[in-house]
Amino acid sequence: MNIIVLIKQVPATTNVKIDDKTGTLKREGVEAQVNPFDLYAVEEAIRLKEKFTGKITVLTMGPPQADRALRETLAMGCDDAVLVSDRAFAGSDTWATSYTLAQSIKKLGNYDVILCGKQAIDGDTAQVGPGVAEMLNIPHVAYVKKIEKIENNSAVVERFMEDGYDVVETPLPCLFTVVKEINTPRLPSLRGMMFSKKAEIKHLNAEQIEADATKIGVCGSPTTVMKVFTPPQRQGGERIAGEPQEQACKLVGKLKEIKII
Questions:
Q1: Second-level CATH architecture of 2-215
Q2: Which of 13, 47, 88, 250 fits a 20 to 30 Å CA distance from 187?
Q3: Percent of the chain, pLDDT > 90?
C-alpha cells in the first residue's frame, strides 16, 4: 500500500505577527512545529503500513526550514519525505495551496490513500485536505475517527459527527482527514531519529511540478485579506443589584436604552 501524508509546519507559539501588506503570517524567526493534527495522520499511516506493508511518503509545502518538520515524521517511522518549496508559492491561500499539493502528488505517482490532519492550527479552515482531493478528482471523507477496514480496492471508515458517527464506504484511491480521536501518536524511536538525520529530503519547485503560474502564490489566490486587526479588549459587565423584581425592571430599562426591546 502506497500512502501519502500531507503535513504543515506551523508556528509553535500564539505570539504571531501579521504582515500588514499581505495579510499573511510572518514566519521568519518564529519557532515552528509539525501541525499537531497532522501527527495523528502520520501515526495512522504508520499503523496502516504495519498492517498492510507498503511505503509512506510525507509531503509538505513551505520554506526550506520546513524540512525539520519532515525529519520529525521520518523519525516516527515514515519512509520518504518531499518538500515543495519555491518563492513563487509565497502568500498562497487554501485554494492555491491545494492546487500546489495536488500537482506535487501527481508527480509522485501511484498512491492508495492520502491522509491529512483535520485542519491546521494556524488557519483553522479545514479546506486544504478536501481541496486536494477535488483537484485530484478522487473521493474524500473528512473527520475520520476510525478506519475499519481496507480491502478489495475500497475502505470503510467512521466519520465523526456532532451527534455520533457515520459509517462510510469509499473506493480507492481516496483522501481522509482524521481527528485526534483516531489514535495516539507515537514518539520517535532512537533508530528512527538516526535514520531521519541521514535521510535525503526530496525537493520540488514550481517548474518541476508543472504549476500554472496563475494558480500559485498571491496572484493565484482568489481569497483577498481586506483587513487585519486585533479585536478590542472585552469590557466588564454591569451588575444589577436589588430585589428580583427591581432587578428585572432595571434590566428592561437597560434593554430599552440600547433598543433591544
A1: 3-Layer(aba) Sandwich (3.40)
A2: 13
A3: 74
